[in-house]
Amino acid sequence: MSVKQIIEEIEQEVIDVNKTTFVHNPTSSVPSITDSGLTYESGTDKKGKKIETCVLFVDIRNSVALTEKHHNQTMGRVYTAFTKAILKLARHHNGHTRNIIGDRVMIVFPSKNCFKNAVHCAISINHASEKLINKHFAVDFKCGIGIHYGELRVIKVGIQRNGSENGENKGLVWVGYPANLASRLTDVANKKMENDYFEVTRHPINPKAIKPLFGGLASMFGNTSNYDPNAPFYLNTTEIVEMSVTEFADSIHHYDDGRLFTGGGKNIKFKKKTKTHTFPPILMTETVFKGYKKEAPKANDVVNNWWIEQEYPIDNIKEKVYGKHLTWKI
Predict the structure, then answer these.
(1) What is the DSSP letter of 157?
(2) Residues 47-75: b if buried by 16+ CB within 10 A, e if exposed
(3) Are 293 and 217 a contacting pair, CB within 8 Å?
(4) What distance in Å separates the CA atoms of residue 261 and residue 103, rounded to the nearest whole number?
(5) Is 170 left (phi over 0), alpha (psi -120 to 50) or beta?
(6) CB 3.0-4.6 Å disulfide test: which of 81, 169, 173, 325 passes with 280?
(7) Tally of CB atoms within 10 A around 22
(8) What is the per-residue burial (b if ≥16 Cβ within 10 Å, else e) of 160-190?
(9) pTM score, two decimals?
(10) What domains can you pick out in the chain, each with its CATH number?
């Protein structure tokens, strides 16, 4: 078959997929590749499933640096031991391993008790990393774990192949925020993050120098401004504010003649600084945290308020995030 023929064949398949209706049936159990409720499209309605549950991702930290530092045989043993541990711990906590991509593993939990199972699985994985892998291998081994909850839509993708390659050409795709955001939390868990900002010292704007909008009509709407047309535009007092790089850049404007001025006050001086923050190895969204407290209200970590709200912002995460470095007392 020529390249032209294969491209034409693929185009027909793209057209076929685009016309296919996708039907997602609800489930509370975790689908597998052999699930009869999942089908390929091939000109008929494509059947998938949807489940509301927790998704956990775990990833090895500094895997590239570890491989460069240690012998390949050593790292092969580390990866093997840790992956086996994850698979066993996932099963112990009623989770199902659904993706192993390099050194990142995805675990999905049945809906029932998913919050408790996911959080306890995370603690167990962190325990294995901290107490077992580092105990038996002379490496600085760390992992990052992220958990989120929500609706996942699952479809089966791939092509039919004969022989030993058949299984390698099939897979499940998990679509939805739980997988995306759990993976995002995993990206930063157990990592040191650096963030540049500007410390700005300035004279603040004088409130009395700001003329109310709409003139005399302002008083009709409850405006009690102490506007003074003779008041200086800036106060003699000083304030120190912290501004992100973007906020600082956006505060700078210029007159028509090219002179620069800044919004919010008259700059006296500014200095670029860097904040650092190290995230704990286990991170979960507030949705998971609330669900966990409801399912395990008497757990020591809940009773003793061990989970800490993370103040450092995480890209794409709009809700609060809680984290901690916890292991089991055995």
Answers:
(1) E
(2) bbbbbebbbbbbbbbebeebbeebeeeeb
(3) no
(4) 50
(5) beta
(6) 325
(7) 12
(8) eeeeeeeeeeeebebebbbbebbbbbbbbbb
(9) 0.78
(10) 18-191+279-324 (3.30.70.1230), 194-277 (no CATH)
What is the rounded distance in angstroms from the CA atom of residue 298 to the CA atom of residue 312?
29
Using CA atoms, how far residue 16 sits from 10, 19, 46, 117, in Å, is 10, 5, 11, 40
The residues, any chain, with a CB within 8 Å of residue 215's CB and separated by 6 or more, are: none
> Are 89 and 56 spatial neighbours (Cβ–Cβ below 8 Å)?
no
In eight-state DSSP terms, residue 22 is E
Long-range own/partner contacts, residues 297-304 (CB < 8 A, 24 or more apart): 301/326
CA distance 84 to 79: 8
Please determine, for residue 129, whether its predicted confidence score (pLDDT) is greater than 50.
yes
> 40-49, 112-121, 163-172, 238-247 — which one is most confidently predicted on average?
112-121
Decide: 314 and 182 in contact? Cβ < 8 Å.
Answer: no
CA distance 29 to 31: 6
Contact 289, 89 (CB under 8 A): no
**156-205 pLDDT tens trace:** 876 655 555 555 567 888 888 899 999 999 999 999 988 899 999 999 99
